[in-house]
Design goal:
With about 270 residues, the protein is an alpha/beta fold. It contains 14 helices and 7 strands.
């Protein structure tokens, strides 16, 4: 039996029509792949992923990963409650929901295991794994990772690291927060910690990192895109505000670069 708090969270999550449509489609079929939800709802993979994350956190659905692909089913506690019956009843006469009920059988007429890899890749393209590498993983690479996570999460799985670890730069965190991106949960990492990840691209954001760049497993392509070093630029600043201006300029340059991804990488 689901708790009152979980019930409230589920109702909040279902305030979005696409989440409600997703939930009812899953309830009809038992389990759906993200690619099938993309086809039904006609929205992007990143948007489906965001909607499903909200439903999972609310306690309405459970997800499982099969290779690169996510599959979703009702939380058994929710499926066994009268809430799902009520949800089906209140949408029964809505034309869009009626159409979903017809379309879902056509979309899912074949068993899940018979959906070809090519079909899945068309619906759920794999994200590019991109590592932003600098000397100490304290400022520039952290900014790049933060922007990539905030702006390109549907296309890029972003990481950052350094050839050494210098800790998180507080000015970098401050100017990123000014731009609406919180990187306070990120941490300074040595590149050796990511030795098991097969990257598609490694972007060196400072000259020292480019010269010290280690070899990576797989077919990672190394791309060099250097940015000025804000701590070095701000070394002689007379006030904190004067120092922050250097960080803001470099931050904006990094944002512009990240916004050009992944297209600019494939042209290198």
């Amino acid at each position: 039996m689901i708790s009152a708090d979980t019930t409230i969270n589920i109702f909040k999550a279902l305030a979005d029509k696409n989440r409600l449509r997703s939930l009812l489609a899953i309830s009809r079929k038992g389990e759906l792949c993200a690619c099938q939800l993309i086809e039904l709802l006609k929205i992007s993979g990143a948007t489906v992923s965001n909607h499903m994350s909200i439903l999972v956190r609310a306690g309405a659905v459970l997800g499982r990963k099969d290779g690169r692909w996510m599959y979703y089913r009702l939380n058994p506690e929710f499926a066994g409650s009268r809430l799902i019956e009520w949800t089906q009843a209140v949408t029964a006469e809505d034309e869009e929901f009626k159409l979903d009920a017809c379309c879902i059988d056509e979309i899912c007429c074949a068993p899940l295991e018979s959906i070809t890899k090519k079909q899945r890749e068309r619906c759920c393209p794999a994200k590019l794994k991109v590592l932003f590498l600098c000397t100490g993983n304290s400022c520039r690479s952290q900014m790049a990772e933060g922007f990539a996570r905030a702006l390109k999460s549907g296309e890029i799985e972003a990481y950052s690291a350094g050839v050494a670890t210098h800790g998180m730069n507080p000015f970098a965190m401050k100017v990123m927060a000014e731009a609406g991106v919180d990187i306070s949960d990120q941490r300074s990492k040595n590149v050796s910690e990511l030795s098991g990840v097969e990257f598609d691209y490694v972007v060196t954001v400072c000259d020292n990192a480019a010269q010290s760049c280690p070899a990576f497993p797989g077919n990672a392509k190394v791309v060099h895109k250097a940015f000025d070093d804000p701590p070095k630029l701000a070394k002689d600043a007379k006030t904190e505000e004067e120092a922050l201006e250097h960080y803001r300029r470099v931050r904006d340059e990094i944002r512009a670069y990240v916004e050009s991804l992944p297209g600019v990488l494939t042209k290198e």
